[in-house]
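Lab channel / #folding
Pinned by the channel admin:
"Please post every new chain as: sequence first, then the structure tokens as a reply. Keep commentary short and put observations after the output so the thread stays searchable."

First post following the new format, from NK:
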Amino acid sequence: MSLLKIDGICKSFGGLKAVDNISFEVQEGTIHALIGPNGAGKTTLVNMISGIYSVDTGDIYFNDEKITNVPTHKLVNKHIMRTFQNLEICENMTVMENVLLGFNINMNKSLLKCSFQFESIMDDEEKFTHIALSHLKRVGLEDVAYKLCGDLSYGVLKKVEIVRALALNPKLLLLDEPVAGLNGTETAEIAEIIKEIASEGVTVLLIEHDMKMIMGISDNITVVNFGVKLAEGTPAEISSNPVVIKAYLGEGSLHE
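Reply from TO:
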């Protein structure tokens, strides 16, 4: 069953067509990779799915519900979460504080409650802190929960971003280059985290250039180039597709 359906969407910036009539489906509970050269339209696609960019034409469906041009905050309420290509971390805050930002939508902080139900607010904070600690523990970050993010390595902060995205129990997790700039050990750790997330029933749409990782963890792959869909299939099908090899992978690129 497809959880996410992209149906002929297009996006132009001035005279440049960044995404041109792309369609594909992401099956529920799978890891679906979106690959292609820089400038191919991958992040633009994810920005449209997550409500950051408007869709010019075409439609997007989530769980059979049309979500074309639905605002980002409403998509979060539907449990669609994402990370970004560049870190979006508050470095002057602790790891815990950054993760708790992900719970903010669930925290009842109305003026009335702040005035008359302070104890209930504290109960909420305690509950979310407990959940945040459990997420941090699963990725090995419980020991840095109360350290300032500005004092931590880039690789650790990549994990913090993923944990923050998990805060609202996502049904669909959009990951934009989660291992960019990481070394081999850090990449392997993130790959294991992504596999674990998917094994728990979260559907993952993943943008990444690390082909070894992509081929190792993806169930399906969509290849885009110059804003159009070039190919789609399993890792085995994509790695042996001559059109994809010529346009993007290159001979021997999977064996580097």
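NK: The radius of gyration is 19 Å.
TO: also worth noting, Residues 118-138 form the longest helix (21 residues).
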